[in-house]
């Protein structure tokens, strides 16, 4: 076994914490807790999302059935996703259910409730939204418009190794990691914690789409530089770690 492979396995085995002095993390030094959301830029447009009391058309799916019938879907119908359906999927993957001083409890678990992910949406066919990239604000259950673009489908497919079904979806969920949110508390083991958190989020999406007659397919194959450029994240302090197109299925 090569030394490179051995080093990579340490990431999975949690050996990175060996010999590390956790009194050196920023939390222990009294550095203020990082923000849970990226701040808004001046003039950015906010979009109100329907709350749970307004979800009139969200179906009920038996949990055992949803788990048993979960499949990765790569063929989508040409049908618009409603804003109500999108709001439900966003809540199911990152919705805040309780707030405390310096933390939020959400619909998915996160190491130390650090929630180091930002949810971006490549919107191509959602009722009431112009084609463009948006970001979810979990604490207020709103969207912020990042930028508009009529040619998203032709741009996101090349960034994801030519996987054409992304361009045929109604919306692509993209989760970006902001590592410092986790590093503030966990130092060198943060990368593994973020990877685990991302899996929790995407699995919730797989189950939630069953309630709105949609399907999804987790995407881990993408060109890092191209996809970061597409979503206009800096690629260092914030970068895309996972994507999932969503669309209507039979």
List the helices and strands and how they pair.
Blueprint: H1 3-13, E1 46-48, H2 63-69, H3 83-94, E2 96-100, E3 103-106, E4 117-123, E5 132-137, E6 142-148, H4 152-159, E7 171-177, H5 180-186, H6 190-208, E8 214-216, H7 224-231, E9 239-248
Antiparallel strand pairs: 1-6, 2-3, 4-5, 4-7, 5-6, 7-9, 8-9
Helix pairs in contact: 3-6, 4-7, 5-6
Please provide a written account of the structure.
- The protein is α+β, with helices and mostly antiparallel strands.
- The protein has a single domain, classed as NADH Oxidase.
- It has seven helices and nine strands, in the order H-E-H-H-E-E-E-E-E-H-E-H-H-E-H-E.
- The longest helix is centred in the last third of the chain and has 19 residues, at 190-208.
- 37% of the residues are buried.
Task: Give the gist of this structure.
The chain has helices at residues 3-13, 63-69, 83-94, 152-159, 180-186, 190-208, 224-231, and strands spanning 46-48, 96-100, 103-106, 117-123, 132-137, 142-148, 171-177, 214-216, 239-248.
Let me know the CATH homologous superfamily: NADH Oxidase
Question: Percentage of helical residues?
Answer: 25-40%
Biggest pleated sheet: 7 strands, antiparallel
What would you say the CATH architecture is?
A: 3-Layer(aba) Sandwich
Mean pLDDT across all amino acids = 94
Count of DSSP strands? 9
What structural class is derived from the secondary structure elements? alpha+beta
pLDDT < 50 stretches:
none
Radius of gyration from the alpha-carbon trace, in angstroms: 18 Å
Strand/helix succession: HEHHEEEEEHEHHEHE
Distance between the termini: 46 Å
CATH class, named Alpha Beta
């Amino acid at each position: 076994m090569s030394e490179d492979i051995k080093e990579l396995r340490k990431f999975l085995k949690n050996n990175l914490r060996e010999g590390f002095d956790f009194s050196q993390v920023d939390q222990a030094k009294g550095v203020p807790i990082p923000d849970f959301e990226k701040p808004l830029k001046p003039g950015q447009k906010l979009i109100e999302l329907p709350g749970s009391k307004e979800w009139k058309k969200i179906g009920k799916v038996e949990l055992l059935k949803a788990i048993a019938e979960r499949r990765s879907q790569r063929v989508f119908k040409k049908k618009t996703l409603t804003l109500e359906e999108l709001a439900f999927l966003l809540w199911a993957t990152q919705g805040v259910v309780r707030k405390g001083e310096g933390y939020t409890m959400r619909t998915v678990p996160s190491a130390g409730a650090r929630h180091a992910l930002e949810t971006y949406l490549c919107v191509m066919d959602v009722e009431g939204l112009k084609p463009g990239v948006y970001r979810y604000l979990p604490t207020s259950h709103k969207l912020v418009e990042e930028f508009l673009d009529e040619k998203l489908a032709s741009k996101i497919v090349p960034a994801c190794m030519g996987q054409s079904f992304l361009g045929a979806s109604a919306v692509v969920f993209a989760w970006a990691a902001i590592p410092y949110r986790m590093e503030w508390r966990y130092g060198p083991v943060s990368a593994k914690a973020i990877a685990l958190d991302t899996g929790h989020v995407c699995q919730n999406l797989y189950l939630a789409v069953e309630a709105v007659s949609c399907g999804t397919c987790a995407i881990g194959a993408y060109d890092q530089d191209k996809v970061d450029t597409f979503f206009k994240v800096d690629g260092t302090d914030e970068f895309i770690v996972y994507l999932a197109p969503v669309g209507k299925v039979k």
